[in-house]
Design a protein that fits this description.
48% helix, mainly alpha, 2 strands, 3 helices, 12% strand
Length: 86
C-alpha cells in the first residue's frame, strides 16, 4: 500500500515539475521580447505597460482595463471599439 502512494506522489511531483518547466508565463518580458511582440509601451512608476491608441484626433478618450473577465482582451476590445465607432 505504501508503494502505491509513493508512485502517486512521484507522478504528481513529476507533472507539477513539467508544468513549471514548460510554463510560458515565467519568461522575462524584456525589450527584445517586446520588440518581437510589437505594439507600443510606456514606462510608468510601477513598470512598463502596453497600450493601444486608436480613433480620431480630438475624439473622446475611453480606457479599457483588461483582466476582469476575458483572457484575450484584444478580442473583446476590438469588438467594443468597432461598436463604439458606430
Amino acid at each position: 500500500m505504501n508503494a502505491k502512494w509513493l508512485i502517486v506522489f512521484l507522478g504528481i511531483f513529476l507533472l507539477v515539475g513539467v508544468y513549471y518547466m514548460l510554463d510560458p508565463e515565467n519568461k522575462e518580458l524584456d525589450d527584445g521580447e517586446r520588440k518581437k511582440l510589437g505594439g507600443t509601451y510606456i514606462n510608468l512608476s510601477d513598470g512598463i505597460t502596453h497600450y493601444k491608441l486608436t480613433g480620431p484626433i480630438g475624439g473622446k478618450v475611453i480606457v479599457f482595463v483588461h483582466g476582469i473577465v476575458f483572457q484575450k482582451p484584444e478580442v473583446i476590445n476590438t469588438l467594443m471599439i468597432d461598436f463604439l465607432r458606430r
